[in-house]
Amino acid sequence: MTAPETDHPMTGLGAEQLRTHAAEHLLRARDRSVTLTDAVDDDDLVRQHSPLMSPLVWDLAHVGNQEELWLVRDVGRREPVRADIDELYDAFKHARSTRPTLPLLGPAEARGYVREVRDKVLDVLDTASFDGNRLTRHAFAFGMVAQHEQQHDETMLATHQLRVGAPVLQAPEPPAPRAPLAAREVLVPAGEFTMGTSTEPWALDNERPAHPSYTDAFVIDAGCVTYGEYLRFVEAGGYDQARWWSAAGWRHVREAGLTGPKYLTRDGDRWLRTRFGSVEPVREDEPVTHVCFYEAEAYAAWAGKRLPTETEWEKAARFDPATGRSRRYPWGDDDPGTEHANLGQRHLRAAPAGAYPAGASPLGVQQLIGDVWEWTASDFLPYPGFQVFPYAEYSQVFFGPDYKVLRGGSFGTDQVACRGTFRNWDYPIRRQIFAGFRCARDARPDEVA
Ligand SMILES: [Fe+2]
Fold first, then answer.
1. Confidence of residue 410 (pLDDT cuts 50, 70, 90)
2. Whole-prediction pTM value?
């Protein structure tokens, strides 16, 4: 039996509280955008650090342009600030690789533009009514825009990681493990649970609606695969042995000449890692980061396991067998606190297994939220009952076999863009994102008896 979702605390907020809540998220996102763009000089802002990424100055003005479209023009019904630049900052009109060739706003102009838009948006927010259409109910459009900016802040952080040059970002180290993991693997019982959500006010269309979903009994790793574990696969010759790879994965690993996780180099008998401009020895107990889906899949095969499906991941994260309910997050229904998960660019790396025991799921699976995005075995597909909202380009145009789902957010993800139901997707060859994985396997008969 699955229990119904309970109402989200935001549904009880009055208009003034919603205004404060939305403003806090918008301001936090902007603080981060400013930190990431002020950290480098103007040459670096307009430079393309990789054909996979936009120049940072494009991301900045694009964030402002989306904010203008949704909140100044659509919700606020105000005159456009810069209708002439809409086309330049439409992500669907220009591939990332071509964006440096566009007549983009320069650094000073882009900064001035996003400030002007934000001033108007805070004005719109001051008098907005939240009981009208779906776009404004629970301040959804403001939440969507804050999420969008935070998603670009994570993309900009990935650009910082690709950037060549002296380090410019600083952050304290993540916490050390509090206690060793009680078990390396956790058994998840067979049965239905509630997947997705119909009650999270700021959930995006692809997370909806809540629906019953069934899994057989399975076993999932209590923590993510670490660099130490992954490098044993590398050193055992895993990248030279076709038998661990899918046909598409093997083709890719040969064509791309992959020999190990991105940003790692071999130095004699040790591995070094380049991280935001610093070169350091690899930490064995840190979750492996910057591997693509195919590498995750191959490691899992070598380890005698497989990747979890998206459904398995969410069940391990949210299902509470004591109540039959799905929680908002592994630890419960409270928003993420610093004790629960490594989120929000507070630390610039994933934390070792055992660093966030307070964030464990009811079944004892740890660090599902934060640290690294986790590749799943699943294609990005709509849930039963999916409805486009507020526009087809958010999710619908990406549904299909080209993209694999990633779950849980990374150290670079803000909490506003990381619910227990949040779904990310990317091509199976992508490695510049902050992605790792954990393994799963079918439960043996003796384990479920
Ligand atoms: Fe965008």
1. very high
2. 0.96
